[in-house]
Design goal:
Helix content: over 70%
Shape: globular
Structural class: mainly alpha
Strand content: under 5%
Distance between the termini: 50 Å
Order of helices and strands: HEEHHHHHHHHH
Radius of gyration: 17 Å
Length: 240
């Protein structure tokens, strides 16, 4: 039987903190957190740190808090760095090529930081070495997947809600990213804000913790394979 009370509490905390943080941040005027979206409309990036704070607060209410805090925190920080300092390069290949030349790009920071944090989170969630690695791939891979789909209003937040819902049957962890995403969904769809890399990676990492924590080895292997395939497909679609 799932922890219904824990899920409701985590959803409420994550949502309330994300909403309050977004309302507070919107009073600021910082050009670093302003962007033009796909349609040329000016939007803010404040929902990114807001959902990250919400996911951190929600994660702190659960027994898997250590894994959640590590994964979400790294996703938020590395994503925020890319939001502020990101360059024009796209795809792992370009960033790894630059890294081999001694240049540390924002993409390399995300790859190393989120990948490493995913492995730490996996080690905290599972007991056996193989399961730890698979869980780490799932956490980091899910963070990457949510960021990949964040190309239009509501896609990333909507994906988190859609993928998180079945996870509620396995435990309360999925309620964390769902609560944070729900708090800003209307503003995201209304093209007043975008969650950016910070929010997408934070939500994706929290969702990855839920997926990894709720699956055994077979489930982990299937999810890891699917996430790696999605990443490879996305990489192949990047113009060279």
């Amino acid at each position: 039987m799932t922890d219904v009370t824990g899920g409701v509490r985590a959803f409420g905390v994550a949502g309330a903190v994300a909403r309050a943080a977004y309302a507070g941040l919107r009073t600021r005027r910082d050009e670093r957190f302003t962007r033009k979206n796909y349609a040329g409309r000016t939007v803010d990036l404040y929902s990114g740190p807001a959902v990250a704070l919400g996911a951190l607060a929600g994660s702190a209410t659960l027994r898997t808090r250590a894994a959640g805090l590590v994964a979400v925190g790294a996703g938020a920080l590395c994503g925020a760095y890319d939001d502020v300092r990101g360059d024009h390069r796209r795809g792992f290949r370009d960033h790894l090529t630059a890294l081999r030349s001694g240049e540390v790009t924002s993409g390399a920071v995300k790859l190393i930081g989120i990948g490493g944090a995913g492995l730490v989170a996996g080690a905290l969630l599972k007991e056996r070495p193989v399961d730890k690695v698979l869980a780490g791939v799932v956490v980091a891979g899910t963070a990457h997947l949510v960021n990949l789909v964040d190309l239009r209003p509501g896609r990333a937040t909507g994906l988190v809600l859609a993928l998180g819902a079945p996870g509620l049957l396995r435990g309360p962890e999925a309620a964390v990213p769902m609560g944070a995403a729900a708090a800003v969904l209307a503003d995201d769809l209304g093209e007043r804000t975008m969650i950016g890399d910070s929010g997408a990676h934070a939500l994706g990492a929290a969702l990855g913790v839920a997926v990894a924590g709720g699956n055994g080895r077979t489930g982990l292997a299937v999810h890891a394979a699917a996430l790696l395939a999605a990443a490879a497909w996305a990489e192949s679609r990047i113009p060279r």
